[in-house]
Amino acid sequence: xxxxxxxxxxxxxxxxxxxxxxxxxxxxxxxxxxxxxxxxxxxxxxxxxxxxxxxxxxxxxxxxxxxxxxxxxxxxxxxxxxxxxxxxxxxxxxxxxxxxxxxxxxxxxxxxxxxxxxxxxxxxxxxxxxxxxxxxxxxxxxxxxxxxxxxxxxxxxxxxxxxxxxxxxxxxxxxxxxxxxxxxxxxxxxxxxxxxxxxxxxxxxxxxxxxxxxxxxxxxxxxxxxxxxxxxxxxxxxxxxxxxxxxxxxxxxxxxxxxxxxxxxxxxxxxxxxxxxxxxxxxxxxxxxxxxxxxxxxxxxxxxxxxxxxxxxxxxxxxxxxxxxxxxxxxxxxxxxxxxxxxxxxxxxxxxxxxxxxxxxxxxxxxxxxxxxxxxxxxxxxxxxxxxxxxxxxxxxxxxxxxxxxxxxxxx
Length: 412
Prior knowledge:
Helix content: 25-40%
Distance between the termini: 76 Å
Largest sheet: 8 strands, mixed
Mean pLDDT: 81
CATH class of the largest domain: Mainly Beta
Number of domains: 3
């Protein structure tokens, strides 16, 4: 037992001696670049994914049954209202119309004859030259002739309607798509789809906004004259800016309870038919805020669990919170180490700086910078390079910071 006790005492002594010989090492300050937060007038756009829509779109169906005998347009082109598009057994319906017109002329001739007979017998009855029964029969024949004429007129109208239905025309100016039938195909009335035509000038653009933005967009809808001419612009799928500006025409009737969004419709002039229905594009809404805004380099922002932070440089002697006294003591210890060590006053001042994370609310991204809606104040010094090596309260220094980022660390 005495040997075991002696061994334990020896091990304890060695451990104590080892601890006394190796004091805990302090982390050196992290080299960083700082930038001062300033306010400036900012031009930016809020971007919304959008889809182009036709203001009106119609499926063309045949209203008569028959074979396609003519196609008179080029697929995918602009057509005009009343332009002839398809013919369906036109000669057959033209023949039926001609027959109905001929029957009408026969009925009209019979009516004229009946009218003459009735007039003649009416004259004779006044001179007692004909029996009353003969006049009565003539009057009845005249009424029957009039009814036959009316029936023939209706038959002509029906034949004319069928003939018109055999010719499919464009209901409005617009762009027509691919034909769903070819020459010689049999089409059935009210069943067979021939084609689709949609308006193309102007063109609608639909996008979604949150319900919190609804009041703002209602104000924009009612305010016809805007201080900014380019309030609504459009970025095309090829990333080019469309050369026309838009106007709010419709805000949907209700908010989607599942997503909390509501649809807004803009209209854009489309004289060159650059916009086609169904295109995916981006609506850019011009910022109308006139007050100076805070804009910082995007690389200075750190995202953690869906929240965004920026490291602000502060003198550890004046940092806030319950740990301020401890941080001040740490700064004093650092200063003592720097005294007489050949490090100079600038190095001592650098060691006093610590980086503290501050939660911010980012806004629009403008080039390499990001708009900050809240969390920072003008005059704050933020870390723009070296944030990857920091944690809350890390000591930092601006001395000996190397790399190309040091030259471009400040936001514009």
